[in-house]
Amino acid sequence: MQRIYEPASLLEAQMLLGMLENEGVGAHLTGRDLVGGMGDLPAMGLLGLLVADEQADYARQLIGEYNAALPVSGDEPDSFPGVLLC
Predict the structure, then answer these.
(1) CATH (domain of 28)
(2) Phi and psi for 77 in degrees, rounded to 5?
(3) Percent of the chain that is helix, strand, coil (3-state, to 5)
(4) pLDDT per residue as tens digits for the range 2-48
(5) Distance CA 81, CA 4 (A)
């Protein structure tokens, strides 16, 4: 298994984990239980997404595409240009 990405938050980690699993990539999240012990203090490097060696390149590609995505023009509200509301 390879550690392919360090999410900034547990929310991002869960979202990416779901995305990878929906694309057929078996992924595992490490450090989930450590986040609560840190309270509200930022702690880098606790969370990590791991995938099988043979799926690592595909998983990195999916995460790269996710990080590069922009909101579809016209979907953002007038009061918050550039922000996509889900």
Answers:
(1) 3.30.70
(2) -70, 155
(3) 40, 15, 45
(4) 999 998 888 899 999 999 999 999 999 988 766 655 555 555 677 89
(5) 32
Q: What is the pLDDT of residue 61?
A: 95
Q: How many domains does the chain have?
A: 1
How far apart CA 6 and CA 12 sit, in angstroms, is 10
Taking 90 as the threshold, does the pLDDT of residue 82 lie above it? no
Contacts of 17 (CB under 8 A, 6+ apart): 27, 29, 49
Torsion of CA 9, 34, 37, 21, to 10 degrees: 40
- Enter the pTM of the model: 0.70
Give domain status of residue 36, yes or no: yes
Print the domain residue range for 32: 2-68
**pLDDT exceeds cutoff 60 at 80:** yes
